[in-house]
Amino acid sequence: MPKKKILMLVGDYVEDYEAMVPFQMLTMVGHKVDTVCPDKKAGETVKTAVHDFTGEQTYSEKPGHNFALTATFEEIDPKDYDGLVIPGGRAPEYIRLNEKVLSIVRHFMENNKPVASICHGQQVLAAAGVLKGKSCTAYPAIKPEVVGAGANWLEPNETFSNAYVDGNLVTAVAWPGHPEWIRKFLEVLGTKIEP
């Protein structure tokens, strides 16, 4: 299996599991994952947040880990990468304001390269204007943005453990969907895992 080069877009208060777990899983199967954040360099970190339901009407937020960046944002060229991962959390709401972030996303979508986006990550896709006519899901609170961007909204199942594929785009609701989301992303990447 040829190793793929994957780019992951993160920022402070990215969802801990949605950055850490995909980074580890994609690395485990042999891919090289470059993690980048606007205005930060390789070797620096972003703070993560752990989101969970603890009885309130919406999720709670607790401090997570420091997540290391493996590449410098200003130096990356999306042409050098085979796939893109956009985790959720709070980071998408502000990294989507960075024009280079949006340009990177457009490059992957326009060139039909695999893109995996989860939870609030779809805010970045909506801001980049790449969802028109695409079928996808996201964290339910993001539904108005996804639909407003012209996407066909796919309802999450009751356990949030499903993922959807529309061409090169793989989306899921939140971190409980990691096994299905990453499995489908690996399939779109063409990664074969031997039993």
Explain what you see.
The chain is α/β, with parallel strands linked by helices and 195 residues long. The chain has one domain: 3-Layer(aba) Sandwich (Rossmann fold), CATH 3.40.50.880. 28% of the residues lie in helices and 25% in strands. The strands form three sheets. The protein has a six-stranded mixed β-sheet, sandwiched between helices. A three-stranded mixed β-sheet has the order 2-4-5, covered by helices on one side. Strand 4 and strand 5 form a beta hairpin. Helix 3 packs across helix 4. The longest helix has 13 residues. The chain is globular, with a radius of gyration of 15 Å. The protein starts with a strand and ends in a 6-residue tail after the last helix.
Short summary:
The protein has helices at 16-28, 91-95, 99-110, 122-128, 143-148, 178-189, and strands spanning 5-9, 14-15, 32-36, 45-52, 60-68, 83-86, 115-118, 135-136, 152-153, 163-166, 169-172. It has 195 residues and is α/β, with parallel strands linked by helices.
